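We close this part of the discussion by returning to an individual protein. Part of our work consisted of pairing the sequence of a single chain with a tokenised description of its backbone. No coordinates are needed to read the tokens, only the vocabulary itself. The amino acid sequence and the backbone structure tokens for this protein are reproduced below:
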Amino acid sequence: MSARDWIEKDFYRELGVSSDASADEIKKSYRKLARELHPDANPGDAKAEARFKAVSEAYGVLSDSAKRKQYDEARRLFAGGGGFPGGFGGAGGFDVNDLFGRAAQGTGGGGLGDLLGGLFNRRGGGAAGSATRPRRGEDVETDVRIDFTEAVRGATVPLRLSSPAACTTCGGSGAKPGTTPHTCATCSGSGLVTRSQGAFAFSEPCRDCRGTGRIIDDPCPECGGDGVSTRTRTLTVRIPSGVDDGQRIRLAGQGEPGRNGGPSGDLFVRVHVNPHSVFGRQGNDLTLTAQMTFSELALGTTLTVPTLDGKVTLKVPAGTASGRVLRARGKGITKRDGTSGDLLITLEVAVPNNLSSEARKALEAYADVTKDHDPRGDLNALLEGR
């Protein structure tokens, strides 16, 4: 995208947010629009695809704090007709070009060149600038949802993405296959031209090459000369064992392609884990709750419970209290170093809703035998003021 495009486009309007929107508001709006406009949800809809590209382009700028700052400053400075800000007093032909890259001698600052270098692809006042320097591609983030057992054991899942990528037809050059771009004669490849207006001289993006420093006589029919096109691709993602809900996995070099031979950005996959109907998780330990009868806890028993790999049997000692946690060592989540967490079993008394006449008589007999035992003795003492 040229500097002029960046200045003239209203990325906030594309995302439907205000210019003072927070990063979370921008992300929320982008995700909503991306879901609605995604090519998979609107097959054959050219308008939706164009809006999807525009929304993705806007998010690529506003989600990056440094780029957003540059964009806001550029729009503030150039608002209202694309000209440079007025108010430069003095005589003798003041050269505004100094603002765009020539460091002030003895001041330790680089003027607006430091601020707008990213917009105009130029740092320093040399003729060639940096319009053709390699630039790293943007990072991309997507989401994937997996089952609880896949998160514990690890899994390999296919991931289908529609995102900007190097044009396969031109290989990212932007030129029709069999042709090559050539250096812009107007700006000598710098992407900027200096113009005089009265006593002032100022630099602006070259209109012939749109600030790229290159001329493409025969644009690629697929990408229109951008070198980047939106395409759908399928990646195989390896989810490591023990991944947490909300954790991000980085796939180096799988993000947006770089420009002018620069490296590609990274792809970050945020993992969402579906809850399990029986098991829970605490770090690398698995948890479950086992319902017990009063007699099992009072008299003791042997308890068999499931694990993710089979079953395990534990001894419940006589007189075990409801709420006690038993530990089955090594039956949890395997850590990266090869060790495993444990399975934590919480014992809980199951109180029946209905009692048979025989069960009621047995319980009444038990209550009569144990009536001298008061489990709430300490509480009663407080009630009685003792």
